[in-house]
């Protein structure tokens, strides 16, 4: 079992973030006799998944919906699949947009390097 501080450190988030996820019903840690939150390996695996979804810009509302569907049981498998497929599609659009932007930046950088190189060459030619 892990404390909230240990989990936060392990995941690179704040304890506030973990409390927020609990408030949003994304995670339900166990409590010890003193009422302190305790996390097990299952919680850690789930939180790692949540962090990946968050890193890919999945809204908290969708993460919460997925968590609720999971807790409802196997009969929600199709709904969960649909939610993840929709997110994957969104991710693929983001990747495509990033690739287009990266190419534009690459071309712009090459143009500036060429401009600077030509300017340096012409300035060097004038000095001799």
UniProtKB/TrEMBL annotation:
<dbReference type="Pfam" id="PF13411">
    <property type="entry name" value="MerR_1"/>
</dbReference>
<dbReference type="GO" id="GO:0003677">
    <property type="term" value="F:DNA binding"/>
</dbReference>
<dbReference type="InterPro" id="IPR000551">
    <property type="entry name" value="MerR-type_HTH_dom"/>
</dbReference>
<dbReference type="InterPro" id="IPR047057">
    <property type="entry name" value="MerR_fam"/>
</dbReference>
<dbReference type="GO" id="GO:0003700">
    <property type="term" value="F:DNA-binding transcription factor activity"/>
</dbReference>
<keyword id="KW-0238">DNA-binding</keyword>
<feature type="domain" description="HTH merR-type">
    <location>
        <begin position="1"/>
        <end position="69"/>
    </location>
</feature>
<protein>
    <submittedName>
        <fullName>MerR family transcriptional regulator</fullName>
    </submittedName>
</protein>
<dbReference type="InterPro" id="IPR009061">
    <property type="entry name" value="DNA-bd_dom_put_sf"/>
</dbReference>
